[in-house]
Amino acid sequence: MPNDLRAEEDAWIRAAQQGDADAFGLLFRRYHERTVRTLFAMMGSEFEAREAAQEAWVKAWKRIDSYDYTSSFYTWLHRISINTALDAIRVRKRNNHRAATVESIDESPSHEANPAQRAIHRERWDELQTALAQLPEEQRSALVLRELSGYSYQEIADTLSIKPGTVMSRLHAARQKLAAIWKKSS
């Protein structure tokens, strides 16, 4: 992140830590949809992703005083978001509740694309979501953070509270399983 944006964000965080809800709202506007996209890729349901994101933002607001600037705000927020989503997934599994159908959010091609390109893109996105849903949650989380959110190995390790070596092994296993799933479906 450029230094001027980082300085602006740090000012918002300091204000939010002083109780300024408007400053926290600026952070929300900057990162909310990005957070929802990540959670959607993990959960496979836009509704569940938005619910988990909302819960994560409430937790972040309540815990804003614990943000210590050792990682980026985005990494800190996503650690909360990912853990919230994982909790929701565990509850869903425990209740044997199936997720809502896969829907695309901000993952469609540009409006300039012709209808055939949009249909192909949507089909591929749906195939990806179906394949991701078949991965164990630990592997899916690492893969989504790396490939869809662009996290570094260290950021993934920090977010999931695991070692970088564990991140690498989970990513390797996830990629192998994903390739096998796609090969089987072709």
UniProtKB/TrEMBL annotation:
<keyword id="KW-0731">Sigma factor</keyword>
<keyword id="KW-0238">DNA-binding</keyword>
<feature type="domain" description="HTH luxR-type">
    <location>
        <begin position="150"/>
        <end position="177"/>
    </location>
</feature>
<protein>
    <submittedName>
        <fullName>RNA polymerase sigma factor</fullName>
    </submittedName>
</protein>
<dbReference type="InterPro" id="IPR039425">
    <property type="entry name" value="RNA_pol_sigma-70-like"/>
</dbReference>
<dbReference type="InterPro" id="IPR014284">
    <property type="entry name" value="RNA_pol_sigma-70_dom"/>
</dbReference>
<dbReference type="InterPro" id="IPR007627">
    <property type="entry name" value="RNA_pol_sigma70_r2"/>
</dbReference>
<dbReference type="InterPro" id="IPR036388">
    <property type="entry name" value="WH-like_DNA-bd_sf"/>
</dbReference>
<dbReference type="GO" id="GO:0003677">
    <property type="term" value="F:DNA binding"/>
</dbReference>
<dbReference type="InterPro" id="IPR013249">
    <property type="entry name" value="RNA_pol_sigma70_r4_t2"/>
</dbReference>
<dbReference type="InterPro" id="IPR000792">
    <property type="entry name" value="Tscrpt_reg_LuxR_C"/>
</dbReference>
<dbReference type="Pfam" id="PF08281">
    <property type="entry name" value="Sigma70_r4_2"/>
</dbReference>
<comment type="similarity">
    <text>Belongs to the sigma-70 factor family. ECF subfamily.</text>
</comment>
<dbReference type="GO" id="GO:0016987">
    <property type="term" value="F:sigma factor activity"/>
</dbReference>
<keyword id="KW-0805">Transcription regulation</keyword>
<dbReference type="GO" id="GO:0006352">
    <property type="term" value="P:DNA-templated transcription initiation"/>
</dbReference>
<dbReference type="InterPro" id="IPR013324">
    <property type="entry name" value="RNA_pol_sigma_r3/r4-like"/>
</dbReference>
<dbReference type="InterPro" id="IPR013325">
    <property type="entry name" value="RNA_pol_sigma_r2"/>
</dbReference>
<dbReference type="Pfam" id="PF04542">
    <property type="entry name" value="Sigma70_r2"/>
</dbReference>
<keyword id="KW-0804">Transcription</keyword>
